Amino acid sequence: MTPVRIWDLPTRLFHWALLLCVIGLFITGKIGGDAMNWHFRFGYAVLTLVLFRIVWGFVGGHWSRFVRFFPTPARLLRYLKGQARPEDHAGHNPLGACSVFVLLLLMAAQAITGLFSYDEIAFAGPLSGLVSDHAVGLATSYHKSWGQYLIIAFVVLHVLAIIVYTVLKHRLFWAMIVGDKLLEAEILAARDTAGTRALALVILVILAAAVYALVSWGNAHGTAGFGY
């Protein structure tokens, strides 16, 4: 068994930052009141993180790139038949990859609908004034009901899967902390250098600035948005 760098630092920081933001969103959403100001900020952070992960899925470390773990029918069938190749276990296995893409989709949907939501009391998403009342109603309905429940369900499922794989000695949890996994075969290590980390920081700053600009622009066009 040889330790191999699978998850680069940007991917690991994304993972834990997203988890903290989701916890923050849930808590502030349930508290309501003035805590909604932080709810909005956590939502903007989630949108930035999801956008970062999408970009990093094309330019990040070897095993962080979507092409390396995209769950094609062939990969899924091979995995379900018990004929998985070593690379199918290095990063996300095909079933885990399905979970990753679903979670990214749900997080994006939740963050985007939050931009157009309105609680009919005091808080409105920064872009809610740019669409019809019907569209705002649909976005609000999804954001406050199906959206959050689906995320909670998939997060619970994700945690249960990690527990199962931990019992099976796959050490997923520890790998997402230190970046390395103990693997039997000769597997290509992900590039995780000062250069790649600097690139990740530049991408994150650019995306954060873009989200900030979008929110500021929405607020400047007559909405009652809160947050930045």
How would you describe what is shown here?
The protein has 228 residues and is mostly helical. The chain has a single domain, classed as Transmembrane di-heme cytochromes, Chain C (Fumarate Reductase Cytochrome B subunit), CATH 1.20.950.20. It is 68% helix and 4% strand. The protein has ten helices and two strands; from the N terminus they run E-H-H-H-H-H-H-H-H-H-E-H. It has helices at 9-31, 36-59, 66-69, 73-80, 86-90, 94-115, 133-144, 146-167, 172-178, 194-220; strands at residues 2-5, 180-183. The protein has a two-stranded antiparallel ribbon with strand order 1-2. The N and C termini lie far apart (48 Å). The relative contact order is 0.18.
In whole angstroms, the N-to-C terminal distance is: 48 Å
Low-pLDDT segments, ≥5 res: 224-228
Number of strands: 2
Helix content: 55-70%
How many whole angstroms does the radius of gyration measure? 19 Å
Fourth-tier CATH superfamily name: Transmembrane di-heme cytochromes, Chain C
State the CATH architecture.
Up-down Bundle
Please render the helix and strand layout as text:
Blueprint: E1 2-5, H1 9-31, H2 36-59, H3 66-69, H4 73-80, H5 86-90, H6 94-115, H7 133-144, H8 146-167, H9 172-178, E2 180-183, H10 194-220
Antiparallel strand pairs: 1-2
Helix pairs in contact: 1-2, 2-6, 2-10, 6-7, 6-8
Short account of what is shown:
The chain is mainly alpha-helical and 228 residues long. It has helices at residues 9-31, 36-59, 66-69, 73-80, 86-90, 94-115, 133-144, 146-167, 172-178, 194-220, and strands spanning 2-5, 180-183.
